[in-house]
Amino acid sequence: MTLKEKVNKDFIQARKDKDTLKADVLRLIKTEYDSFLIDNKREMTEAEEIHVFLKDIKKNNEAIDYAKQVDRTDLIEENQKKLAILEAYVPKMMDEREVRFFLAENGVAEMSLKDAMKFSMQVLDGKADKALVSKIIKELLAK
């Protein structure tokens, strides 16, 4: 079952269960799928589907950070619930230790910054946080 099929199935189930928050989150994802189809006249690849979720996860994290700054616990709770729904659809991201091991094993420390970033973003795209990868590469190259 593709990610899009899973989203459609879960959206229908959320509507039946009257889970409005989950239905709303999945409706936004479905809208992004449809917009992509209209704009590009083709279906999304699996990587592009994952990027839709990662983009929305990033938006929710930013909303949580902002809500913490203005001390809005209601918004924090709502966005954390949305975040949990979105994270259920993406594969587990690599943690810092795993990223460091991967980069060290592939000799990134001997590459230029441009080559290291190009290589690692191609390989780790959708598997690790880009900001984390960038930070670790810069640390490895500074040594």
Give a structural overview.
InterPro entries: Asn/Gln_tRNA_amidoTrase-B-like, YqeY/Aim41, YqeY/Aim41_N. It holds the Pfam family YqeY. GO terms for molecular function: carbon-nitrogen ligase activity, with glutamine as amido-N-donor. The chain has about 140 residues and is an all-alpha fold. The chain folds into 2 domains: about 5-90, Orthogonal Bundle (Hypothetical Protein Yqey, Chain: A, domain1); about 95-140. It has helices at about 5-15, 20-40, 45-70, 75-85, 95-105, 115-125, 130-140. It is globular.
Mean pLDDT: 93
Envelope shape: globular
Radius of gyration: 18 Å
Tell me the name of the CATH homologous superfamily of the largest domain. Answer: Uncharacterised protein YqeY/AIM41, N-terminal domain
Count of strand segments: 0
The structural domain count equals 2
Binned strand content: under 5%
Structural class: mainly alpha
User: Sheet with the most strands?
Assistant: none
What's the CATH architecture of the largest domain? Answer: Orthogonal Bundle
Helix content: over 70%
How widely separated are the two ends?
45 Å
**At the first level of CATH, what is the class of the largest domain?**
Mainly Alpha
Number of helical runs? Answer: 7
User: What sequence of helices (H) and strands (E) makes up the elements?
Assistant: HHHHHHH
